[in-house]
Amino acid sequence: MITLKDIRKCFSNGEEQIVALNDVSLTIQQNEFVAFMGSSGSGKSTLMNILGCLDTPDGGHYTLNDERVDSLSDEALSRIRNRHIGFIFQTFHLLPKLDAIGNVKLPLRYSDISDEEAHERAVALLTKVGLGHRLTHRPFEMSGGQRQRVAIARALVNHPTMVLADEPTGNLDSKTSEDIMNLLTELHQQGQTIVMVTHEENIAEYAQRVVTMKDGSILNERSKP
């Protein structure tokens, strides 16, 4: 489903060129749960941005659902993000003035889906993630775990090809982190492809495959039986 071939990304720091990704090649299959690990500066966040079509590589090929996306225009990348990718962030990125339903409906604003259907999808997903009793609550009325559940529902509302989770438990206590990871595991078992960035070994262990990065390259990877 996802193929990266010799992906390279550089950044300029004055006159110095910093290689963030150095000829990274990787394949992610449909319905995989993959975690990327590595210290700060290893390239995992840069790779996540490229996978999420938030950035483009300087070299190499990126294929998503049999479509080359590494050289698409910003407008085309925006369409890819809206149709195929759901995002979960460490800091939730919820709009404070909208209730849970309003936040989950946001990605559907520029789709052809009617407001009635968008509302139905949002209610169904919020119920699925255990927030059927919090539909009209705004973010400041929720705990961190509840806000992350809203973010997960929002990531799923477009029926994405894959969900990208960037440090999804970074702002949560250990018990809430466990609850969120159990929810992501359940979604994966239902067929959702999940790609996650984390620096926590215990969180990475929820994934089927753990890819460790160092200095812009893949150091090693291991899969569970």
Descriptive report:
Keywords: ATP-binding, Nucleotide-binding, Transport. Residues 2-225 form the ABC transporter domain. InterPro entries: AAA+_ATPase (IPR003593), ABC_transporter-like_ATP-bd (IPR003439), ABC_transporter-like_CS (IPR017871), ABC_transpr_LolD-like (IPR015854), MacB-like_ATP-bd (IPR017911), P-loop_NTPase (IPR027417). One of its GO terms (cellular component) is plasma membrane. It comes from Marisediminitalea aggregata. Helix 5 (144-156) packs parallel to helix 6. This protein is α/β, with parallel strands linked by helices and 225 residues long. The chain has helices at residues 44-51, 74-84, 100-105, 115-128, 144-156, 174-189, 201-204, and strands at 2-13, 16-28, 33-37, 59-64, 67-68, 85-89, 162-166, 193-197, 209-214, 217-223. The protein has a single domain (2-223), classed as Rossmann fold, CATH 3.40.50.300. The model has no long low-confidence stretch (mean pLDDT 93). 32% of the residues lie in helices and 29% in strands. It has a 6-stranded mixed beta sheet, with helices on both faces. The protein has a 4-stranded antiparallel beta sheet with strand order 2-1-4-5, with helices on one face. The longest helix has 16 residues, at 174-189.
